Amino acid sequence: MQSFPTYLCSKFWVGWVLSVQDMEFFFDCGLCEANRVLQSILTRNFENVTVNVSQCPNLSASEYGLMDIGLGGCPTLLELGGAPYLLPKVQKDKLYDIKAICRKSMGEGKILAVGAGAGPYPLRNTNCEGIFNLSISAQDEIKNGSYTAKITGLQEDCLLEPIPDTETRCALLLNLYVCRGEPGPVLKINCKKRTGHMNFIECIRKGLYEKYQDKCVGLGGLFLLKNGKAHQHVMRDFSRSPIHTESELNQWLKFFEMPGTLHAVGTLVTHEHDLDLRLQHFHSFSRTKWGGHYHYDTTPDTIEYEAYFNVAERIVRVDKPKTTHKFGRD
Questions:
Q1: Residues 6 or more apart from 272 whose CB is under 8 A from it?
Q2: 3-state secondary structure at position 125
Q3: In angstroms, what is the C-alpha Rg of the chain?
Q4: What local confidence, expressed as pLDDT, does residue 62 receive?
Q5: Contact 286, 232 (CB under 8 A)
Q6: From CA 266, how far away is CA 286, in angstroms rounded?
Q7: Is there a cis peptide before residue 105, judged by omega within 30 degrees of 0?
Q8: Where does the chain show beta strands of DSSP type E?
């Protein structure tokens, strides 16, 4: 298979090659304030809701599955590339080294990086979803709990495969929550029985937007779909013909109804600003064959979510597309 270069970064980082914008968040609402806002908005969409600020459980335990214990320490949202590098035609030269970019973004010390993006297609010899979950020690040792999800076989089944410690690339686009993996307070959310029409993440994001309007708020972390099922997609191999519309995109994607338990990692923000930010992006893995891009749950009467989020303090935007569009971001 033809090989392509792996990109790093940046306009403002000396010696790097891609544009980078690194800024403090416009508004840090704080965990306690976010707690009150989300309790109110989620109650409109779910019958049973509990939101509180609590000490983060050990997220490296098997029931959660992350590669470090917490979501604390320099909470940062990191966005690489974007949908215009996939659509309408794929730009296969857009490969990024997550380890190098996280190190440059966070400086010295250990790092936890979790989130959603396009997987390292050279590893699988095909396009794939990336479910990223890795720790980087202060000595730059990698522990990789990441997965790819791809379409396989004549029946177009979903295949979830672990990414080895030696592979730290992603392709095309990525939304990461990056921190030190330290223990500390987080937003803990439990929701059961959906009564409204919004999906779990959309409800949180729109509730924060409704409260803070022109102020930008960002969250990242993990949610578990503990009971019920979710409508999720897995990308087929790269399309040979350009994709220009949502209808063409949905014909290319392969959709599944995936059962819980699903472990979903990703980010949300309330504004794109001039950074062309993706407003929400979560990918999930499981202990079986299932993994992919979360859209919404399909079992409102039995659905159960448990989430752990932290409020981001800054955003690092790497290799923002020079020309953009607004489809393919659901």
A1: 279
A2: coil
A3: 18
A4: 96
A5: no
A6: 15
A7: no
A8: 6-7, 20-24, 46-55, 76-81, 95-97, 111-118, 129-136, 142-144, 147-152, 157-162, 169-179, 185-194, 218-227, 229-234, 254-259, 262-269, 280-285, 291-297, 304-311, 314-318
Q: The whole model's pTM is what?
A: 0.94
Which tokens belong to 254?
């392969």
What is the identity of the amino acid at 160? Answer: L
Q: Which residues pair with 191 in a beta bridge?
A: 49, 305
DSSP 324: -
Q: Where are the alpha helices (DSSP H) in the chain?
A: 31-43, 98-106, 121-124, 200-212, 246-252
Contact, 121 vs 170, CB < 8 A? no
**Residue range 30-52, pLDDT digits in tens:** 788 889 899 999 999 999 999 99
- Express as a percent the part of the chain with pLDDT over 70: 92
d(CA 137, CA 144): 11
Task: Quick: pLDDT tens for 193-235.
Answer: 999 999 999 999 999 999 998 888 999 999 999 999 999 999 9
CA distances from 54 to 67, 186, 253, 311 (A): 20, 6, 38, 13
Map residue 159 onto helix, strand or coil: strand
Give the side-chain half-sphere CA count within 13 A for 61. 5
Give DSSP secondary structure letters for 132-152. EEEEE-TT--EEE--EEEEEE
Cis peptide bond N-terminal to 84, omega within 30: no
Residue 153's pLDDT is: 96
CA distance 35 to 45: 16
